Recover the amino acids of this structure.
């Protein structure tokens, strides 16, 4: 059954039903949060730029493309690719429905996403990759068609079970990293994903610097600014290291090379650098406010507080009291968006 929706400045028609790949054409209302955030980040990115060319690589019913055209500043063209014939018809209908609101022309192509990129021959200022599962099948073609200097990539992964350690063999197969589901697994999964994408860029001597990354529900999303040069790639690769996690003490050691240590589990390689650029921490949501605070603490993992008290024979104090105790010791401490039971604490 179809339903009319409104989001941002546009209205559109999409199937209504349980969110799954079985829908005849896909639209997920819960991801309005992410689309709102994308618009804010793109409007920051578009400052002092002209005639941007944007790509909605896996367009589904076309909502991102519509919002790019109607809400992002300084946009010249938007490209929307979708191989599902039913979804393709929804995109065309939704463009017609919003034609008076669109500031930039939307070019629609019914095709495999990778094939469509090559056929356009375009170099894009921004490419959005939001697939079911891993983004891996789209990285090569996207990197061939994103501007290598001051371009922006927005990449989602929904295979969080593999990234976070539920299926370590899948993590190794897809992302070439060792993983173990420890208390701060949500952040570990995101950092493994970022490592994989940085490596893919380095193969083409395109440096991909994370500027905004987050975990939400069962997926990860990261935005990368592009730059060219082997040296820049090398500096990012140098930040892809390993964790030695002690299961008894729950302490983490960062090591440049893989090694064994009694009582410890080796995790990685994974990106250990900064996840956030202040310029792109957008919006006034609770998540944005939390990220503003945790971004000030340069530690690539958080502490899951209940785990620290488990089996200790004493009750856990309030988070406010725990945070005050750390501050009395001279530590920086903040809540983390990754986990409501976590704290990011300076070393």
């Amino acid at each position: 059954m179809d339903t009319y929706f409104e989001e941002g400045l546009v209205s559109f028609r999409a199937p209504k039903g349980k969110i799954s790949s079985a829908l005849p054409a896909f639209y997920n209302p819960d991801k309005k949060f992410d689309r709102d955030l994308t618009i804010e980040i793109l409007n920051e990115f578009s400052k002092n730029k002209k005639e941007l060319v944007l790509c909605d690589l896996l367009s589904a019913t076309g909502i991102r493309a519509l919002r790019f055209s109607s809400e992002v500043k300084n946009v010249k063209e938007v490209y929307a690719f979708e191989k599902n014939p039913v979804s393709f018809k929804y995109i065309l209908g939704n463009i017609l429905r919003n034609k008076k609101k669109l500031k930039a022309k939307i070019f629609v192509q019914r095709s495999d996403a990778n094939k469509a990129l090559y056929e356009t021959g375009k170099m894009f200022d921004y490419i959005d990759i939001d697939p079911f599962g891993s983004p891996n099948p789209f990285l090569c073609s996207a990197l061939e068609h994103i501007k290598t200097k001051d371009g922006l990539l927005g990449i989602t992964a929904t295979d969080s079970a593999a990234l976070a350690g539920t299926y370590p063999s899948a993590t190794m197969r897809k992302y070439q990293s060792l993983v173990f589901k420890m208390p701060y697994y949500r952040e570990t999964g995101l950092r493994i994903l970022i490592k994989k994408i940085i490596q893919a860029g380095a193969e083409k001597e395109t440096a991909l610097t994370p500027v905004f990354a987050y975990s939400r529900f069962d997926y990860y999303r990261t935005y990368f600014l592009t730059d060219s040069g082997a040296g820049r790639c090398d500096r990012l690769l140098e930040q892809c290291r390993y964790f030695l996690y002690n299961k008894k003490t729950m302490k983490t050691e960062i090591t440049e090379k893989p090694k064994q240590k009694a009582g410890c589990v080796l995790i990685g390689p994974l990106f250990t650098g900064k996840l956030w650029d202040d310029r792109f921490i957008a919006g006034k949501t609770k998540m944005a406010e939390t990220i503003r605070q945790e971004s000030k603490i340069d530690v690539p993992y958080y502490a899951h507080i209940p785990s620290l008290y488990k089996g200790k024979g004493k009750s856990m104090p309030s988070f406010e009291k725990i945070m005050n105790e750390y501050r009395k010791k001279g530590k920086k401490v903040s809540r983390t968006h990754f986990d409501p039971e976590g704290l990011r604490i300076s070393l």
